[in-house]
Each structure stands twice: as structure tokens, then as C-alpha cells.
Design goal:
The protein has 2 domains: 47-164, abc type-2 transporter like fold, CATH 3.40.1710; 172-368, no CATH class. By secondary structure, the chain is α/β, with parallel strands linked by helices. Strands 2-1-3-4-5 form a 5-stranded mixed beta sheet, sandwiched between helices. The protein is built from 14 helices and 5 strands. α7 (172-202) packs parallel to α10 and α10 (253-277) runs antiparallel to α13 (321-333).
């Protein structure tokens, strides 16, 4: 029994000496419960909206103040006409436009009934529906409060929701771009990281590093074949999306394919960086799945709106490549926009690609020394 307890104590020493084991045992569960607790939410907060007030009277101002009073909505801008609605949505900042009909207060006084239109960006179907529901609830709350104050003057405010870019409220319009971003990231990074760690395990990496090839040449030589294979994968996803799920491609197909190649290159460069950290294929697979799968699902805006997250998680999501590629996909495919509307996301993906390639080259140089 003494030998047994001595062996147990020794195993404890081994565990507490290994930082990676401690990270798996204690760090990952804590991180997951914190991330899920803050991210998994069906509430909305800090949604930017625009107001098109064609009446401009006291009642519309009160309704607007009621809508903006809580933490759900933030005023982005006041619009001057209907022609500004589409361009406002295309920027991607505004998720809803509220339109007050002309003579809003006058109609309430004469007929006891007035209407407002709620136009939501439904490229994310779940969020669009939720935003419209929240707005309707706030308007009804205003009506009930006003009726309590002036019970002698009954009136109703009718809200008429309309969904922009996705009038049928099809969930596939959101899930296909998100799934495409996730699949390309996971498959591309995983293929590359395993490919290079396999070279290490077989002992052929030392031959490559001892050859006249420079680290940059080795890296690009490893990446190039996988760019072609991953691009074919992306084409298959787009074909299935268009013909099976009826997902439209309203923008430029050439721009969409170029952005896809750029994103694939970023994913492959990330895979190479992982391979310089991992010592074997198992570790490369573990790092790829852990570092890419959960963040892609939770912090990219794929399922849960980024606006709902705490500020620290919103900042963390900035370095998540799928977040920016999903924005690009939805802008090109659903909104039909061009490079002028996705240039910022494109530059971010370019910058992240340069960072990961630079880090990979640096680690390869260290190995050569």
C-alpha cells in the first residue's frame, strides 16, 4: 500500500509539473464555462438602428425615446427618405430602420390608430426576427403606459415588420455562410498542420531544413497544393448552396472567389503556424480543433450576435478570421455589394495572413539555426 501511494504521489508531481496538462484539466473548463455563459444568449443589446420620421411630431419623438431608453437599441442616424434605407443596410452597421408614417400624431387623434414600419436586416434571420419582436414589444409597452395615463383616449399603434435581404426568413441564409467559413478554416488549417508535423515524425523535415531551400520557400511550397484543394472544396460548397439551398449570389462571383482564395490562404498560414508549435500530429489536431472550432462557432457571429457579448469578448473576436469572412460572404452573396463595402474586412484578413506567415517563417529560421 505504501508503494501504491508513493506511485500516486509521483503521478501528481508529474501532472503538476506539466503546464499543458494543468491547462487541459483546469484552464479549458473554466474558459468554456465563461465563454458559453457570456456568449450563449438569445437577448439583444446595443443594436444600432436608424429612424425615418416622416411625421416629426411629439408622439413619434416619445416613441423613439421609449425605444432608445433601454440597453437594447442605439441610435445610429436619422434618415431623410426611403432611398437611404438600402444604402444604410449595405454598410452593415445598422440592423433596423423604423419608419413613422406621415401625420402619425394626427392619425392617432382622429382615428385612434397609427402605424409604423419596422425594417430589419434579415441576412441573419434569427437576429432580424428577434430585433423586430423586441421593437414591437417596446411599442406595445408605450401604448399601455399611455393608456394608463390617458384612459379616456384609446388608441393603437400598429407595427408592420419587413425583412430586408431575406424576406422569407430562411435560416439557411445565415448558416450556409457561417458553415462555409468554419469548414474552410478547420479543414485548411488541419490539413496543413498535420502535413508538416507528419514530416517531423517521419524525420524528413530535417532533410528539408538542411536543403538549400529557404524557410519561405518551404512554407509556400507546403501551402500551394492545399490552396488548390481547399478552393475546389469552396467551389463545391458554393454549388451546393446555390442549387440545393437556393442561396442567392447577388454580387460579383469573381470578387467572391478572390475573397475565398484570400481566406483559404489565411487558414493555411494559420495551419503552418500551428505546425511549428506542435511536436506531433496528435498535438496539431488537438490545437487545431481547440483553437479554431469553438472560437469559430462562438466568437465569429456565426450563431450569436457579437453585439450581445461583453466588450472583452468583442475585442477578442477581432482576431477571429471567420468573423470577417462571414461579413464578406453575406455582403457579396445576400446584399450584392462590391469591394467598397468589404475593403476593411479584406485588409484585416490580409493583415492576419501576413502576421501568421511572418511568425511561421520566424520559427522556421530558429530551427535552421
Amino acid at each position: 500500500m505504501k508503494r501504491y501511494w508513493g506511485f500516486v504521489v509521483k503521478e501528481f508531481y508529474h501532472i503538476f509539473r506539466d503546464f499543458r496538462t494543468l491547462l487541459i484539466l483546469f484552464g479549458i473548463p473554466v474558459a468554456q464555462i465563461l465563454i458559453f455563459g457570456f456568449v450563449v444568449s438569445n437577448e439583444i443589446r446595443n443594436i444600432k438602428i436608424s429612424i425615418l420620421d416622416l411625421s416629426g411630431d411629439e408622439i413619434t419623438q416619445k416613441v423613439t425615446s421609449k425605444i432608445l431608453a433601454g440597453e437594447y437599441f442605439e441610435l445610429h442616424s436619422y434618415l431623410a427618405g426611403y432611398d437611404q434605407i438600402e444604402s444604410t443596410f449595405r454598410t452593415g452597421d445598422v440592423k433596423e430602420v423604423i419608419i413613422f408614417e406621415p401625420g402619425f400624431s394626427e392619425n392617432l387623434g382622429k382615428t385612434g390608430n397609427a402605424s409604423l414600419r419596422i425594417v430589419s436586416d434579415a441576412s441573419d434571420a434569427n437576429t432580424g426576427r428577434l430585433i423586430a419582436t423586441y421593437t414591437e414589444g417596446i411599442v406595445m409597452s408605450y401604448v399601455r403606459e399611455s393608456m394608463d395615463e390617458t384612459a379616456a383616449i384609446p388608441f393603437t399603434i400598429e407595427s408592420r415588420p419587413r425583412m430586408y435581404f431575406n424576406q422569407g426568413m430562411k435560416g439557411v441564409y445565415m448558416f450556409v455562410p457561417g458553415t462555409m467559413a468554419m469548414i474552410l478554416m478547420l479543414i485548411s488549417a488541419l490539413m496543413t498542420s498535420i502535413s508538416i508535423t507528419r514530416e517531423k515524425e517521419m524525420g524528413t523535415m530535417e532533410v528539408l531544413l538542411a536543403s538549400p531551400l529557404k524557410p519561405v520557400q518551404i512554407i509556400f511550397g507546403k501551402v500551394t497544393p492545399y490552396i488548390g484543394l481547399a478552393f475546389i472544396n469552396a467551389i463545391m460548397i458554393l454549388i451546393l448552396s446555390y442549387f440545393v439551398f437556393k442561396l442567392p449570389i447577388n454580387g460579383s462571383m469573381i470578387l467572391l472567389l478572390l475573397e475565398t482564395i484570400l481566406y483559404i490562404t489565411l487558414a493555411l498560414s494559420l495551419g503552418i503556424f500551428i505546425s511549428t508549435v506542435a511536436k506531433n500530429q496528435q498535438m496539431a489536431m488537438f490545437i487545431s480543433m481547440l483553437a479554431l472550432l469553438l472560437p469559430t462557432i462562438l466568437l465569429s457571429g456565426f450563431i450569436f450576435p457579437i453585439e450581445n457579448m461583453p466588450k472583452i469578448l468583442q475585442w477578442l473576436s477581432v482576431i477571429m478570421p471567420p468573423r470577417w469572412f462571414i461579413v464578406i460572404l453575406k455582403n457579396i452573396m445576400l446584399k450584392g455589394t462590391g469591394i467598397l463595402f468589404v475593403w476593411k474586412e479584406t485588409l484585416i484578413i490580409l493583415g492576419l495572413t501576413a502576421v501568421f506567415i511572418g511568425l511561421s517563417v520566424k520559427r522556421f529560421k530558429i530551427r535552421l539555426e
